[in-house]
Specification:
With 478 residues, this protein is of the alpha+beta class. Helices cover 28% and strands 23% of the residues. The chain has 15 helices and 25 strands. The longest helix has 17 residues.
């Protein structure tokens, strides 16, 4: 539905889209974009500099309550309309990831007319200038689109120009793995996302089907210990917990090699990934036992759990079981069983989507978990900068570890100041090693988007964050 100012290729290269060119000021605090003059939103509103300004101002407006998109452009000061097709974005400080942030759907450009309709309307129908237009959206059931017949401004690198090949695009929500796979193998749907790892070999062996995977960049699926208070405020306990869980074996058996055990908080496909983290923080139950002894958890109760001063070593996990994906609920139970062998009592808090945010803001938990797909290692800033510890003041709020380290903050700040790729890689490596050594994160697995489709389906491509894209897609006769 949406187009972006720029597009990003798989190697991190930035290319024109709604913006035909751009200039960055010597101090890195302003970006001037020349815009296309032939673009129209699907509601008939023309795309121009005012539309860009309206969108970015809307994202950072406190009334919008944006956590994700606003967190991508935290230094944003404002947008100046230089002329109808030229805009200048001003920042309070240099922000090297700005262009990659502007390439994401989160900062895709919507019709300014719809931005005035309020949150309820925007949550149900997004109006953009993209190749598809929403027909109907039914929460928890699905969404349908029709082709935008006037579309003629794809990003650089698209396989064709003009409208999309597909006249109609329909998504159905099929939460049960068996139902989703059955819909594909029986021909009820043309393609499915999230092919279950246990069914990957089945799909590969079916001559009527194809299967393709893409590794998601940005934050892996990780566990985040609360370093600010509770049992995990002691680094020795954090290190012991990590060393007591054989993540490599658990991930290998549960996901059949479809997902890889993680070593760093970010995926290997991410710009700035440090392979040196693969030598840190492995499974070592003897070391875990020694660390817990050193931390004072030397006695055990009748159930075999470690205790100190009469209190059991308990980890309260803020885990939302009702929306767990990729068998994460099964994974969590296996981790719970492994931790018990070390004398650690893992308990799942009664968390639902509605009460998750208040618990997170209060920091009333010992462990949290999620993945955080982003186009480059600036995801580390979201995840570990002290400014992103969950609070009511804005920012991404993604620092669930509530981790605060002056060196890490300084390194992350320096990554924003430089556009030198080698320097950024060096700084990101320091951050990754520090947070792994401090056990401020327990890397679990790297997510691969697993897409299965019928042989008649062609041309599905992948955008930079490893999401499938359907502009070039088409379906041949059966």
């Amino acid at each position: 539905m949406l187009d972006s100012l720029v597009s990003l290729d798989a190697k991190g290269g930035v290319h024109p889209w709604l913006a035909t060119s751009w200039e960055v000021s010597p101090d890195g605090k302003s970006y001037t974009f020349a815009l296309r003059k032939d673009v129209t939103f699907s509601d008939g509103t023309p795309f121009d500099a005012e539309a860009v300004k309206a969108n970015l101002d809307h994202v950072v407006d406190p009334k919008t309550k944006s956590e994700l998109a606003a967190g991508l452009i935290t230094p944003y000061k404002g947008t100046e309309v230089v002329d109808p097709h030229t805009v200048r974005i001003t920042l309070s400080r240099p922000h090297s990831p700005l262009l990659s942030a502007l390439s994401t759907p989160y900062l895709g450009i919507q019709s300014p007319a719809t931005l005035k309709l309020g949150a309820d309307a925007l949550a149900r129908k997004v109006v953009g200038s993209g190749p598809f237009v929403i027909d109907a959206f039914t929460p928890r059931q699905g969404i349908t689109y029709h082709r935008n017949p006037k579309y003629a401004w794809p990003p650089q690198g698209a396989a064709h120009a003009g409208p999309a090949y597909l006249e109609k695009l329909e998504f159905k929500v099929l939460r049960e793995d068996s139902v989703r796979v059955g819909a594909l193998t029986s021909g009820q749907v043309d393609a499915i996302g999230s092919v279950p790892p246990v069914n990957v070999s089945q799909v590969k062996a079916d001559s009527r089907l194809w299967l393709e995977t893409r590794q998601a960049p940005g934050g892996n699926y990780n566990y985040y210990p609360n370093t600010q208070k509770g049992v995990f405020s002691d680094v020795r306990v954090r290190q012991a917990f990590r060393a007591s869980i054989d993540f490599k074996t658990i991930i290998g058996k549960l996901y059949f090699g479809v997902f890889q055990p993680a070593a760093s908080p970010i995926a290997p496909s991410t710009f700035g990934y440090d392979p040196g983290t693969e030598q840190l923080g492995g499974y070592d139950p003897q070391a875990a036992s020694k660390l817990l002894d050193e931390a004072g958890w030397t006695t055990r109760d009748a159930q075999g759990y470690r205790t100190k001063d009469g209190k059991r070593l308990t980890v309260r996990w803020m885990f939302v079981k009702m929306i767990a994906r990729e068998q994460r609920a099964v994974l969590s139970e296996q981790v719970q069983a492994e931790a018990r062998k070390a004398g650690i009592d893992v308990q799942f808090l009664d968390v639902t989507p509605s009460n998750y945010a208040p618990i997170a803001l209060r920091g009333d938990y010992d462990l949290s978990d999620y993945s955080w797909q982003r186009v480059d290692a600036d995801a580390l800033r979201d995840l570990f900068a002290s400014s992103n510890i969950p609070n009511d003041q804005g920012g991404s709020g993604a620092n669930a570890s509530r981790y605060s380290n002056k060196d890490v903050d300084a390194w992350l700040d320096q990554t924003l100041d430089t556009t030198d790729p080698a320097k950024r890689v060096e700084l990101y490596a320091k951050v990754q090693r520090k947070v792994v050594e401090d056990a401020a994160v327990f890397p679990v697995y790297t997510f691969n988007y697993v897409l299965g489709g019928a042989k008649k389906v062609h041309g599905i491509t992948w955008e930079a964050q490893a999401y499938p894209s359907f502009y070039d897609a088409w379906v041949s006769a059966p």
